């Protein structure tokens, strides 16, 4: 097949935008319960800006797998407020930096790991603090477990499984970072919205094998 080039990352981001838009009311409802209610708006604003940037690239995202990811990074870093906007921007920035013209599973694993490191450097959250780190960390672990010749769509499916397990774990936790930490026990039972966003990111990738 033609490999996982810009057309693949372009489709990945467009599917992420579609799933986040479809679930915006649920994301909003979660952040209303454990935060200030704007997570769905922040994520969809970033993805709207990312889609506009994708439309300015050559059709199909161009030949380079990194270009759509870099466009998304710039959109989130430059245009989204809230805590989550810059954190998603860092993840996309590191994925873009690791992806060459063709996306491989080792590059994905390296990029996602660097994204996790950047998020933790900035936000200082550890696994178990009930943040999006709880979804990103197991996703990175699954990507790293994949043999190097695993097709990226398959690796991303494994990452998605890990991320959703992490999302479910956040519902059992008290928050130690972010606005939910002000709620103490009242946030127990409710999943972290940012973690759900990371789950959607990985779930949006692995459904389709590029031609
Ligand atoms: P805000 O609280 O500024 O309104 P958003 O609603 O955009 O931010 O994003 C909230 C999400 O950000 C949370 O659900 C959580 O996943 C994530 N988050 C908050 N603080 C941190 C942190 N220190 N490190 C990592 N993620 C964090
Ligand atoms: Mg919020
Ligand atoms: Mg806010």
UniProtKB/TrEMBL annotation:
<dbReference type="InterPro" id="IPR012737">
    <property type="entry name" value="DhaK_L_YcgS"/>
</dbReference>
<dbReference type="GO" id="GO:0004371">
    <property type="term" value="F:glycerone kinase activity"/>
</dbReference>
<dbReference type="InterPro" id="IPR004007">
    <property type="entry name" value="DhaL_dom"/>
</dbReference>
<keyword id="KW-0808">Transferase</keyword>
<keyword id="KW-0418">Kinase</keyword>
<feature type="domain" description="DhaL">
    <location>
        <begin position="7"/>
        <end position="207"/>
    </location>
</feature>
<protein>
    <submittedName>
        <fullName>Dihydroxyacetone kinase subunit L</fullName>
    </submittedName>
</protein>
<dbReference type="InterPro" id="IPR036117">
    <property type="entry name" value="DhaL_dom_sf"/>
</dbReference>
<dbReference type="Pfam" id="PF02734">
    <property type="entry name" value="Dak2"/>
</dbReference>
<dbReference type="GO" id="GO:0005829">
    <property type="term" value="C:cytosol"/>
</dbReference>
<dbReference type="InterPro" id="IPR050861">
    <property type="entry name" value="Dihydroxyacetone_Kinase"/>
</dbReference>
<dbReference type="GO" id="GO:0019563">
    <property type="term" value="P:glycerol catabolic process"/>
</dbReference>
